[in-house]
Design brief:
alpha+beta, 8 strands, Extracellular Endonuclease, Chain A, globular
């Protein structure tokens, strides 16, 4: 079961925020709404789970410790991250899904996302395709809330079935996209 995010409700909540919004502005109403949606959907599909929220580099991650997989990641854009990519560290991250998959970033490196918990098996065609459009928009829009939500089929598979990617900013069109993975 996947819960659909109500864009009209999100739009109403965004309309109450000051511009530019801070993380705390989003944390008061919007993030709890997103978390409720993500957790209801995940818990309805997976009875055996232990979900933790982790702060890593200013971004938040929901991770299922038992099934060893990322559920979602989110954070506020502070502009372009210019730190070098940790290529050698990324190479050490497991990748067992074959040549069509990449070690995709839940939070893009250009936004400040790291490795380890932030890497998810993602189809290369999505990772270097349309997925980058919202990533780039979030990097350019300081104060925007960027998220990715990873949805899994039943069982203990660590490769997401699809990903929901979102960009939110007061006064701008809400963008939430879904990609089969």
């Amino acid at each position: 079961m996947s819960v659909v995010i109500d864009k009209n409700k999100l739009s109403s909540m965004l309309g109450l925020l000051t511009v530019p919004p801070s993380y705390n502005d989003y944390a008061e109403a919007i993030i709890p709404y997103l978390l409720d949606n993500w957790l209801v959907g995940y818990r309805s599909n997976f009875i055996d789970h232990e979900i933790v929220q982790v702060d890593c580099g200013g971004f938040q991650y929901l991770f299922d410790v038992i099934n060893e997989r990322l559920i979602s990641a989110w954070g506020v854009s502070y502009g372009k991250n210019t730190d070098p990519r940790p290529a050698s560290r990324m190479k050490g991250h497991p990748l067992s899904n074959g040549p069509l998959y990449h070690r995709g970033h839940a939070i893009p490196h250009t936004l400040g996302g790291g490795v380890d918990i932030n890497l998810v098996p993602q189809l290369g065609s999505i990772n270097i395709g349309d997925f980058r459009l919202l990533e780039k928009r979030a990097v350019k829009t300081k104060g925007s809330l960027y998220f990715s939500h990873w949805v899994y089929s039943s069982g203990s598979n660590q490769t997401p079935q699809y990903v929901e990617q979102g960009f939110l900013y007061p006064g701008q069109f809400i963008e939430i996209k879904n990609y089969s993975n």
